[in-house]
């Protein structure tokens, strides 16, 4: 009896989620969603598992969220997978994290191709082990003609690093007469960032209860909406994605101006 009740309840919850999911599509959907996928280690610790088990579980969530984002009509999904500061972690964990792109793409690349997803990467590629960089490059190459969701992995990414590199390129172009100093403005500077052909994120989600940016897209997030949850990344599911987007749809984005009815 109790089991039947549980089953009924579970079905009810998933039917509700499906309805809410469909409802979302009738309203404003973020064009660019960025996610700081955090909490894998704590998820594993809670289960007395090694931290890497959390990373492995987190990878499955990437697959599910990619599918959902695609179904919602989100154009770009940027996922923070490894920061320029994550090298500080124990060697064994770093090695595992560097193997994950191969494992993820080895398993899901055919599915991504099928779903018209375009894989991209932003980050300091030269410092990645060659097996990691090659797996990503292969996926980028195989999906470059796809024009559906852009799945942009921030891998060995750090926003301060990105800004410094952009500054160096700006200086070079000014010295070589390619860019006039008087033409340097927010728009032209954006063209030197790793996101040069992407719009700024409309919505940023961070899981695991940490309320900080951890060196993620400092320039690009200037006017994004933020949504934080205590849920750990491996537990992140359709329900939370719906909640985040519902919250986004209820926000009034003013960009420093006034709401249209106030003007
Ligand atoms: C996020 O989970 C994944 C990466 C940073 C690579 P964490 O590994 O940071 O998990 P916590 O924050 O320690 O729980
Ligand atoms: C941010 O998470 C980086 C990624 C999710 C890849 P961290 O777990 O590294 O951030 P801090 O150390 O808690 O700020
Ligand atoms: Mg963390």
Please explain how this structure is put together.
With 263 residues, the protein is an alpha/beta fold. The protein has a domain of 178 residues: Decaprenyl diphosphate synthase-like (Undecaprenyl pyrophosphate synthetase). The protein is built from eight helices and six strands; from the N terminus they run αβααβαβαβααββα. Helix 1 runs parallel beside helix 8, helix 3 runs parallel beside helix 4 and helix 4 runs parallel beside helix 5. The longest helix is centred in the middle third of the chain and has 24 residues. The mean pLDDT is 96.
Feature tags:
single chain; 263 residues; Undecaprenyl pyrophosphate synthetase; 6-stranded parallel sheet; binds 3-methylbut-3-enyl trihydrogen diphosphate; UPP_synth-like_CS
What's the topology here?
Blueprint: H1 2-24, E1 32-36, H2 40-46, H3 51-72, E2 76-83, H4 91-114, E3 118-122, H5 130-143, E4 150-157, H6 159-175, H7 186-190, E5 203-206, E6 225-228, H8 238-249
Parallel strand pairs: 1-2, 1-5, 2-4, 3-4, 5-6
Bound small molecules, which ones? 3-methylbut-3-enyl trihydrogen diphosphate, magnesium ion
Overall SS class: alpha/beta
Number of helices in the DSSP assignment: 8
Which regions have little confidence, pLDDT < 50, spanning 5+ residues?
A: none
Secondary-structure element sequence? HEHHEHEHEHHEEH
Q: How does CATH name the architecture of one domain?
A: 3-Layer(aba) Sandwich
Helix content: 40-55%
Question: If you average the pLDDT, what whole number results?
Answer: 96
Strand order of the largest sheet: 3-4-2-1-5-6
* CATH homologous superfamily placement of one domain: Decaprenyl diphosphate synthase-like
The share of residues in extended strands comes to 5-15%
From the 3D structure, determine the CATH topology of one domain: Undecaprenyl pyrophosphate synthetase
What is the CATH top level name of one domain? Alpha Beta
Oligomer: single chain
